[in-house]
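Subject: sequence -> structure tokens, single chain

Hey, anyone have a minute? Need the predicted structure for the following. Not urgent.
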Amino acid sequence: MPQGPLSVPVTPDWEELIDVILRRGTPRRVHFIELFLDAEVQEALCERYHLLDGLHEDDPYFDLQRQIRIQRALGYDFVRGSVENLEVPLYRATLDDTADLQRTGGRRFMEEHRGPITTWDEFHAYPWPDPQAVTTRTLEWYERNLPDDMCVIGSGGFAHFAEYVTWMMGYETLCYALYDQRDLVAAIAERLMELFEVVLERMLQFERVKIIWGSDDMGFRSATLISPADLREFVFPGHKRMAAMSHAAGRPYLLHACGNLSEVMEDLIVDVGIDAKHSFEDTIESVIDAKQLYGDRIALLGGIDVDFLCRADVGAIRERVRRTLDACLSGGGYCLGTGNSVANYIPLDSYLTMQDEGSLYRP
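Reply:
Had a minute. Here:
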């Protein structure tokens, strides 16, 4: 591995990134995208490549300066940014983290049996966040200080319609409620719509926010977590509203959604109006297959399977990256990245090999 993360340094170009997402032709180079990098991965990268040299931890905006350094070093055209002060209390369990880049305090999981809202009384007592109380410290600073060749992707704590309905009730409780408390499910979905409308309005006020990225897992290996009909009733109206607001403001709307969504992809493309789909795993559908099925209508993002990255050697990773780019890059509509996110259990050198091969590739 060279002194920096990439063999061929990449100069950000957010305008071409948008051209890629909107399928406006084959790009001059590979563009990278990730939903996020785990904090432990970021810390390891900063230490290995001395990315924080010259920065001062006592600076009130050290965290944002750090993000710019990390993203630029890895070849990204963007930083992620969202609003603050949007706390949604949920029930979680904590287990030991066994990753090499171990997470302090363990790994947290959602409680699947019972969430904080299972009755109307709990719905009314729940400490719903006040959307008018959200703050925009991050977006304000990026608006003034982000380098001109980078943009902000509005993402993080946003557009979790299926997830929050599931997490607020608990998946087990939700399954029963879809039979005998549908009015309560509808009320939660409506409150989420009201909340995220205000959040998106705030994000769209910032000129440097050029892309909006909703995140909402909806499925598992073989199907959706709730029926397609229930997704159409309780979840897709929220994303349709987010996409419409984004498009009215001239921003593409990306969707991260895990699981087998084959039964509802037409809904997401035609009715919801997503511009790109993210999250792929080999046991469900490869990004190459998705490109063949949907690539004439939406962009496909990422797709280098996380389990593959955890197990494969350097040669196999480089070969797969080249094969994926050969199949997906022509005409635009593809950005290179993992199938999900850069988790702390992916070997760091495996992730960097993927990035490095992308920097070397030429269309």
